[in-house]
Amino acid sequence: MQQGRAMAINKDNSLKALHCCYTAGTGGGKSVAVQYAGTVPANPCLAIFDPYGDYEFHRGDPKNRGFAGKKVHHFETRVKFANQFAKAWRSGLPFRIAYMPKEPTRKEMLWFCELMWRACDGNRRLDMVIEELARWTDSNAKETGRLGECLTGGRKFGLVVHTVFQRSTEVSKTILSQSPFKIIGVQESRSDAERMGKECDLTLADIKSLEPLTYFKATGGLGNVEKLDLRHIFDKSRAKTAKNTKTA
Ligand SMILES: Nc1ncnc2c1ncn2[C@@H]1O[C@H](COP(=O)(O)OP(=O)(O)O)[C@@H](O)[C@H]1O
Ligand SMILES: [Mg+2]
């Protein structure tokens, strides 16, 4: 990223929106889906707003496996994160980096979005993840500010926004309408199930049939929905299918 650059560069209108949202109750498999659903490239340029350390990497610790088993570098201050992100992005090489502010707020989330917006470059793909979005957004308002802009304008600049939340009724409709890809796991309530069912043309019975680490994956356009099963990730006795393991 150039120092002080205020805007995304190299607009390319031919780029498709690849934004994806992930929604399931706690333990339903949102963070696992971000890592393994094939929506993030295998060798990504990836920045994560990770206030609860869901992608921490501790060598040899099966509970802190980073991102799909790869190391993620976490930083707690804006200065450190921004410097390391700029260095990684300038290198032209893949990276996985996370911002984990000590006191996460909407303001911190928007600062993260601002940095992504300034960095993105239509000549190459940049993936950004926002964990627990419902805490940093207002369900009753349109998502204005930089997050909204990353979603509506980011596509042309190679930005791919991954938003993660437990309840779809708690996030603004901009998030759903601007994310052609949607990964739906077990739902917390009827109202959440109905909202996602309506978005993706699924029945309540379809959604009720889900178990943790199983999902419906909407791939854009009415009726384009496939099933996804990631139980094999932690249960090696389950055979994996080619469909579930392909990467973007
Ligand atoms: N490191 C791990 N080792 C074994 N099982 C895991 C691990 N991480 C997640 N899981 C399993 O996957 C489920 C979903 O986890 P996760 O994606 O973190 O849920 P969410 O992000 O929706 O809260 C967990 O309930 C657990 O069964
Ligand atoms: Mg999670």
Question: What do you see in this structure?
Answer:
There is one protein chain. With 248 residues, the chain is an alpha/beta fold. It has a single domain, classed as Rossmann fold (3-Layer(aba) Sandwich). Helix content is 28%, strand content 18%. The protein is built from eight helices and nine strands. It has a nine-stranded mixed beta sheet, with helices on both faces. It is globular. The two termini are 24 Å apart. Residues 244-248 have low confidence and may be disordered. Adenosine-5'-diphosphate (ADP) is lined by residues 24, 26-32, 62-63, 65, 212-213, 234.
Walk me through the topology.
Elements: E1 20-23, H1 30-36, E2 45-49, E3 73-75, H2 78-91, E4 95-99, H3 106-119, E5 126-130, H4 145-153, E6 159-165, H5 173-177, E7 181-184, H6 190-200, H7 204-208, E8 214-219, E9 225-229, H8 242-245
Parallel strand pairs: 1-6, 1-7, 2-4, 2-5, 3-4, 5-6
Antiparallel strand pairs: 7-8, 8-9
Helix pairs in contact: 3-4
Q: Which features characterize this protein?
A:
248 residues, alpha/beta, Rossmann fold, 9-stranded mixed β-sheet, 8 helices, 28% helix, globular, binds adenosine-5'-diphosphate, binds magnesium ion
